[in-house]
Amino acid sequence: MKIVVNGEQRDVPASCTAAVLLAEMNLTGKRLALEVNEEIVPRSQFGQHTFRDGDKVEIVHAIGGG
Questions:
Q1: Domain range annotation of the chain
Q2: Per-residue b/e over 22-42, b at no fewer than 16 CB within 10 Å?
Q3: N or C: fewer beta carbons within 10 Å in the chain?
Q4: Per-residue pLDDT of the chain (66 residues; tens, 9 = 90+)
């Protein structure tokens, strides 16, 4: 199955969850926001949220500062 992550096409298994995708990208435990098709996925749902073919995923890192 193909999804688009931050503008780049990526192949993932049909049952891929947000948590699995983040682990594959070495982003587990990082401060970030995940959006799928312009809707925020709550961190509490990362383990349950599965992607569909053609989903557009945006991953944004939270950066602190003042």
A1: 2-61
A2: beeeeeeeeeeebebeeeebe
A3: C
A4: 999 999 999 999 999 999 999 999 999 989 999 999 999 999 999 999 999 999 999 999 877 766
